[in-house]
Amino acid sequence: MSRILIKNAHILTMDDNRTEIQNGYVVIENDLITKVSDGNPSGFFDKTIDAEGNIVMPGLSNTHTHLGMTLLRGYADDMVLSDWLQKEIWPAEAELTAEDVYWGSMLGCLEMIRSGTTAFCDMYFFMDETAKAVEKAGIRGCLSYGMIELFDEERGNSELIKGERLVKEWQGKANGRITTMYGPHAPNTCSKEFIARAKKAAERDGVGVHIHVLETEDELNTMKKNYGVCSVHHLDSVNFWNTKGDDLTAGVDVLAAHCVWMSDGDIKLFAEKGVTVSHNPISNMKLSSGAAPIQKMLDAGVNVALGTDGCASNNNLNMFEEMKTAALLQKLVTTDPEALPAKAVVEMATRNGAKVIDKKTGALKAGNKADLIVVDTKKANATPIFDAYSHLVYSAAGSDVKTMIVDGKILMEDYLVLSMNENEVIEKSKACAIGLAKRAKDKKEANG
Ligand SMILES: C[C@H]1O[C@@H](n2cnc3c(N)ncnc32)[C@H](O)[C@@H]1O
Ligand SMILES: [Zn+2]
Fold first, then answer.
1. Which of 27, 323, 374, 392 could serve as a FRET partner for 240 with CA atoms 20 to 30 Å apart?
2. pTM for this structure?
3. Residue 104 CA: which ligand is closest?
4. Which residues are in the Amidohydrolase-related domain (predicted)?
5. What is the Cα 19 distance to its own chain's centre?
């Protein structure tokens, strides 16, 4: 058995009581937390980490990513979503290879480790490669193959097979660090019949579903024009939002990314059904998609988590930036400075996201999995700290994350990443990105 002690910590447990402990310690035995307390620890430890008064908290959960897209960081900016996807991103993605996605995913894992994200929910292609990267990097990943049916039944059949294969092969692998979901892309790229089939498969396999919904006003208008209802009600007619399953036995998580154009009725429905929303404020602002009504969702009792979206629309995976932006955006659009206070944002970025990834993460307490970070407070931007939540949201940087433990393993210690060769990942992913961009450009020119 391996025993790790983290001592002299300013602990934010993020448990049900949001207990905050000054001068506390955490004991980790193998992959689990066995004690979180103040006072003096006793016993023998294989490894002691002196937190020196730094903040120790659950690792952050990035609940909406397209990790292989990390290679497309900065590939096409300053465009409207439909043009951006159809004219730039999808043609480039058509040139992706398995090797590209492996190194893009490794790069994404590296960036997440360096900025405090211990777990993420992904939807992309060549997912075996992302799974291999997660296995190697040591973090936690909830992976879905992005199924784009395009209202073509035959294409839908083959997409569903790919989605199923990921679930069958990877669910629970890497000591449970890898989990899976079904990922029907969106209600304006997939028919509701197809999305309903994906949901049924998820219930059968006991895994969740991950979808984009009401990201743009254009989606809302198109759905209303074509079906007479918005995306949320369109999919409610096939029970897509039910988290209990048709037979009310097998509960599955439903993760809805963006949710910018939600009506009050949609919000009420999500609260009743127990849907988790992944709010992606930076991507929504960058693509001018709009501002999701997050304070309203929280008031209605919706479980709202936070995500960065892919690296081509953000353009990074830094959850500290996402936290600050989320808070500022709600204050701006509601003209209410009390909207989305710092503590609520930290809840979104930790425990709320953890609910759809692994229910034994997202809070530091005995019995939970040991997924945590140490945030360095010996910094100018961390002086003084009157309130730890305020510091994390309004002043801290991703690069202040000093040490990370996932599943009881130290992935980064004192700013040194231990689970991969950082230079190799940067060089290999850069070479892949250059090759990918060149193939995409050549193809574009050949097509005139
Ligand atoms: C899984 C699929 O989702 C696409 N994708 C990436 N970003 C977004 C977004 N903001 N909205 C919709 N789709 C997106 C990826 O480019 C991939 O094609
Ligand atoms: Zn997305």
1. 323
2. 0.98
3. 1
4. 55-411
5. 24
In whole angstroms, give the CA distance from residue 142 to residue 147: 15
CA 370 / ligand 1 centre spacing (Å)? 31
Measured at the alpha carbon of residue 25, what is the angle toward residues 22 and 30, in degrees to the nearest 5? 150
Give the pair of three-digit tokens for residue 126.
């060549």
Which two three-digit tokens encode residue 196? Answer: 């309903």
80, two tokens: 């409207």
Q: Relative to the CA of 186, which ligand 1 atom is closest? A: 12
225 C-beta neighbours (distance < 10 Å), count:
8
Ligand 1 first shell, C-beta below 6 A? 66, 69, 85, 89, 93, 123-124, 146, 185, 212, 215, 283, 309-310, 313
Q: Quick check: ipTM above 0.95?
A: yes
d(CA 178, CA 171): 6
Q: Which of 1, 278, 314, 346 is nearest to 121 (CA)?
A: 278
Q: Ligand 1, closest atom to CA 146? A: 1
199 membership: H or E segment, kind and range: helix 192-205
> Which residue has its alpha carbon closest to ligand 1 atom 7?
310
Are the C-beta atoms of residues 64 and 260 closer than 8 Å to each other?
no
* pLDDT one digit per residue (tens) for the chain, 448 residues: 899 999 999 999 999 999 999 999 999 999 999 999 998 999 999 999 999 999 999 999 999 999 999 999 999 999 999 999 999 999 999 999 999 999 999 999 999 999 999 999 999 999 999 999 999 999 999 999 999 999 999 999 999 999 999 999 999 999 999 999 999 999 999 999 999 999 999 999 999 999 999 999 999 999 999 999 999 999 999 999 999 866 555 689 999 999 999 999 999 999 999 999 999 999 999 999 999 999 999 999 999 999 999 999 999 999 999 999 999 999 999 999 999 999 999 999 999 999 999 999 999 999 999 999 999 999 999 999 999 999 999 999 999 999 999 999 999 999 999 999 999 999 999 999 999 999 999 999 998 7
Give the HSE-up count for residue 14: Cα atoms under 13 Å, Cβ half-sphere.
Answer: 32
CA of 288 to the centre of ligand 1 (A): 15
Q: What separation in Å is there between the alpha carbon of 170 and the centre of ligand 1?
A: 22
* CA dist., res. 274 & res. 388, Å (int): 29
CA 413 to ligand 2 center in whole angstroms: 31
